[in-house]
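dude i think i finally got it to work??
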Amino acid sequence: MRITKMHGAGNDYVYVDCRERNLADPPRLARAVSRRHHGIGADGLILIRPSTDADVRMEMYNADGSRAEMCGNGVRCVAKFVYDRGLHVNPMRIATDCGVKTLTLAVDARGRVSGATVDMGAPILDGARIPVASAGRVVDQPLEVGGTTWRITCVSMGNPHCVIFVPEVASLELDRIGPKFEHHAFFPERVNTEFVALRSARELDFRVWERGSGETMACGTGACAALVAGVLTGRTERRALVHLRGGDLEIEWRADDHVHMTGAAVEVFTADVELAALYAATGM
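look at this
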């Protein structure tokens, strides 16, 4: 089977073109390819499928094999994958489990996509729709997690996010506290948790614990949620540069309520993989 590894700001996935083929048991494949030391190493698996209402469809799986609705870094890489292989559409529309996203592509002198700006749509702030175990908005509210009371702001960008502003992010024991947020009863569908420190009202430092994947180098929807939370709590302007462990993203919450994200898309390699050998090596 042919696979392609790509990343956006270090948020890496294995991509499989399923526009003319089917794939048996994607959750199993996601778990196998994601293993860093015994498999290929990735934050998950993204399948590229045909679409009746967009140019292509993106189907996403976390590292633990669970489905995810959306990945902002992944959708840029999907656009690069299909454009660089002949689907020369710009702007491009990509269907996801949380609606169709429109991307404006940056194409370099070689005719290849180097990055994109994604219209991520309007943030969802109603607690029942995020979802969280609270009605109405959750903005700078206290929540006890792991014996500590944190001030949280909750946002959905098609998937649920919990944003916490902290003095600095480098010393956080994310491996310890991240799972406690992910599996907290306040979040019925689990949650992605972002810890954010301000350099200024237009520049943020960011670490993330993603449900189903653990700490990742970047999270595009999480960066969008962080900016929205910053605006809602009066900490940031409506446009900011977000520094993630794997790179930078530019985020803007525009006057029409839509959040736009700009970042790079990088192809690492394409290879043919023998599935039986991969499953044997990873114990899948």
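The chain has two domains: 2-121+265-282, 141-257.
im so relieved honestly
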